[in-house]
Amino acid sequence: MAKRNSLSWNDKTREIIDKRLNVPREPRFLTPVEFAVLEAIADRIIPQPDDRPRVPLAALVDDRLVADVGDGYRSAGSPRLREAWRQGLAALETEMQARYDRSFTQLDPSTQDLVLKQMQKGELDHAAWGTMTAKEFFKSRLAHDIATLYYAHPAAWSEMGFGGPAAPRGYVRMGYNERDSWEAAEASEGKEDQARKDNARVGR
Amino acid sequence: MPVSAADPQKTPRAVEGRAPDVFRIGGWVPMRQYAESEEVDFAIVGTGAGGGTLACKLAEGGFSVVGFDAGAYWRPLEDFASDETEQSKLYWTDDRIVDGENPLQLGGNNCGKAVGGSTVHFAMVSLRFRPEWFKSRSVMGYGLDWPLDWREMWKYYAEAEEALKIAGPVTYPWGPKRPRYPYRAHEMNAAAHALAKGCEAMGIGWTETPLATVSAPRGLSSPCMYRGFCVVGCSTNAKQSALTTWIPRALKAGAEIRDLSMVGRVEVDASGKATGVHYLREGAWRFQRAKNVVVAGYAIETPRLLLNSANPQFPNGLANSSGLVGKYLMTQSNQAVWGLSKDEVRSYKGPPSLALTEHWNYDDKKDFFGGYAYMSQGPLPAMWAKTQMSSRQLWGAELVRSMQDYNHVVGLKMVGEMLPQERNQVVLTGEKDQYGLPVPKVTYSWCDNDKAMIRHALGFMRQAMEAIDAHDIFDQDDDTNHLYGTARMGDDPRSSVVNADCRSWDIPNLWICDGSVFPTTGGVNPSLTIQAIACRTGDRIKAMARRGEL
Ligand SMILES: Cc1cc2nc3c(=O)[nH]c(=O)nc-3n(C[C@H](O)[C@H](O)[C@H](O)COP(=O)(O)OP(=O)(O)OC[C@H]3O[C@@H](n4cnc5c(N)ncnc54)[C@H](O)[C@@H]3O)c2cc1C
Ligand code: SF4
After folding, report:
1. Within this chain, do residues A75 and A132 fall inside the same structural domain, yes or no?
2. What's the mean pLDDT in B466-484?
3. B91: CA distance to ligand 1 center in Å?
4. Of residues B1, B190, B397, nearest to A175 (C-beta)
5. What is the C-alpha to C-alpha distance for residues B123 and B352, in angstroms, rounded to an integer?
6. What is the distance in A from the centroid of ligand 1 to the CA of B48?
7. Is position A2 within any domain?
8. A119 in the same domain as A63
9. Contact B524, B352 (CB under 8 A)
10. Do residues A184 and A145 share a domain?
11. What is the DSSP letter of B239?
12. Is B98–A116 a contact, with Cβ atoms under 8 angstroms apart?
């Protein structure tokens, strides 16, 4: 974010990233109950560190549902974006009630992980899933939407060392181990101090 | 500095005698306009690689032309952000259903919705076919022959390369001699060097990729500054898309472009000739009269429109006496091998594919038909997260951990020829989209030859990765590439939809000029071939008009 006012961000980029950072934290499409389940799932799909503000993943998914822009394809058997999320969250809750007699949100994290693994493998099979399989929901909606929205957030870019937006100024040094002065340096063992010093200059 | 208040996805910009100047923030250029009651020479549906190019050629040839596009008319400098999520506004995200054994991934992968079509967010790789592919049935024993001659195509490739000022290597290692590329090749990034090192270790050739982004200033396009957001749209106009090349030329020559105009039906009269197009703009269905209609909506929208235009005279859809409209859909294999380098690669810098090898397109000692190229890669973060999830089933702490290796990622990705199969197809369903038009269903399954090629490529690319000491290597075995087929060209009306001139066999004033006319895919990316065919079609139409054969 240090680069926000530099030549690496054009006006359009500033505008949309600001909007993303200020996404409303209250659900607008999902019901509060659905939203709570989604929050619990997002915590497991992308566990976030405690030492910085959390990326509000459920709010970002909800924001996408408000905009209602699909991926441009869905598998036969799966409904459209909004309906897929509704149906998938409801099916998960129904199956959890049937199996554990409680909501996904009330399970301990390791059980939540186990359930998500089973969903990924297609081992959740309550009739409530209908024609959309649990596996398909996990792959095309749940993990897909949460993770792609996370990696569209500046906090995630910093975490992975991605240079972030880059226009009108692009890059000059493109070879192995080359870094422009406006890219973050990588900290390697024993050289963390140098990286910190280098990185203090990034963003100009 | 928010420039224009109106949302270009909601309110058309090309109105009142002017169109957006794509090279100036808030700028306009004059645009000629035609009345709906005026019978224009050509109504062109779609303004991408095929339609945009043909609009230019025909307007410059003195015809009156209106180009319709369902998408928005963007000014890249003010409208494009450096952001994967925001830029999905360039993609065709309307409802489509996929099935089959290997369902396709559509949307941003291969379908654009904008004035300029998919070229607005394409990766700019601009390659020529291997000459033998135009006769793959008679010369190589598979697929089928094109009704085109490669020597003639060589001339049109040169025209397209010149129009786009392709930046490429001094000598291209494969195929017959071609002229020098107009602009010098781009500097390679580390990801491209990794490809080159791997090829050298494996004893095969490689080259800098010929790209449709300028390596030196060109008019109002400034040279590529290696920002690497090419596949979500180039905000500097270095990219030579249809939006920044053919369409400005078309406007200058008197063409009109109608943005946010979705064509839902081609009208045909009792004499069996097309009379114009029905299109939805600003909430109302309208009709434009035309002497000729060109459909250029790409391999899914083109058959959808033809099928949806069925009438009592043509109950199975227009131009469909062969029954092949929507059939023989093809994609290309797009599998990849990824790994980590001990060095920092930062492959997000520069266009994604700065180096490639066509070795396996030209080496015929293989146990399968067809060929493939492979290219260096530079995935953006969300795309990379998607790859980690779909190929390695990662999520949770494992995903977050593995994403931290991003700057060390190297990858090789194939563009491979898939064989035409009748069962791979586009059909209409009973569901309706936001325009009230039937949602298409797209069915796709690989054949044994497709699978054999993928095995070969994954095996070879893995060896190349091992040869450069990449570690943590993994295969990405599902992804979808460019689209083709569904209205193929040929010599015989019984087994093709259009002839070599992209003219439909059944309706003489209905033309199809886009990726859907390809009988086979070859092992290279399509856009240059689509544009070369459009250049040829433009010349052919001019010649036919002179002879009174239109
Ligand atoms: C991410 C990505 C990367 C790519 N990379 C490369 C590459 O490096 N090299 C390469 O050669 N190719 C590449 N391609 C492929 C290339 O862009 C396409 O093959 C090419 O643009 C197809 O041309 P076309 O004219 O058939 O269709 P398009 O360029 O897709 O144009 C079709 C246009 O028609 C419009 N349309 C469709 N139906 C209607 C209707 N009913 N009414 C009004 N308008 C309609 C659409 O909005 C669209 O604008 C890439 C594509 C993508 C998406
Ligand atoms: S790398 Fe070049 S072509 Fe790609 S987005 Fe940047 S300036 Fe445009």
Report:
1. yes
2. 94
3. 9
4. B190
5. 7
6. 5
7. no
8. yes
9. no
10. no
11. B
12. no
Q: Provide the 3-class DSSP secondary structure of residue B335.
A: coil
Q: Say yes or no to pLDDT of A199 above 80.
A: no
For residue A204, pLDDT over 50 is answered with no
Flag if A161 and B95 touch (Cβ within 8 Å): no
The sign of the torsion formed by the CA atoms of B26, B32, B35, B39 equals: negative
Domain-located, residue A1:
no
Per-window interface: B 349-368 vs A, CB < 8 A: 349-350
Separation between Cα atoms, residue B97 and residue B103, nearest integer Å: 9
**Per-residue confidence (pLDDT) for residue B491, from 0 to 100:** 97
In a domain, A3, yes or no: no
If pLDDT is split at 50, 70 and 90, which confidence band does B2 have? very low
In a domain, A4, yes or no: no
Whether B60 is in the pocket of ligand 1, judged by its Cβ within 6 Å, is: no
What's the token pair of residue B194? 């990794």
For residues A154 and A176, membership in a common domain is answered with: no
Q: B522: which 2 tokens?
A: 């070859």
Neighboring chain B residues of A167 at a CB cutoff of 8 Å: 80, 82, 225, 227, 229, 235-236
Residue of A176, A181, A189, A199 to mutate, testing the B interface (most B Cβ within 10 Å of its Cβ): A176
A175 with A150, same domain: the answer is no
What's the structural domain count of chain A?
Answer: 2
Position A176 scores a pLDDT of 86
Q: Which domains does chain B have, with CATH numbers?
A: 8-26+35-547 (3.50.50.60)
* Chain segment B344-360, per-residue pLDDT in tens: 999 999 999 999 999 99
User: The domain containing residue A103 runs over which residues?
Assistant: 11-158
pLDDT at A142 exceeding the cut of 90:
yes
pLDDT band at B241 (very low <50, low <70, confident <90, very high): very high
Checking if the pLDDT of A39 tops 90, the result is yes
Q: Are residues A132 and A182 in the same domain?
A: no
In Å, how far is B293's CA from the nearest CA of chain A?
27
The pLDDT, as a whole number, for residue A198 is 61
Read off the pTM: 0.96
Q: What are φ and ψ of residue B473, in 5° steps?
A: -75, 135
Task: Determine the number of helices (DSSP H) and then strands (DSSP E) in chain B.
Answer: 11, 22
Residues lining ligand 2, CB < 6 A? A 170; B 213, 224-230, 234, 236, 238-239, 350-351
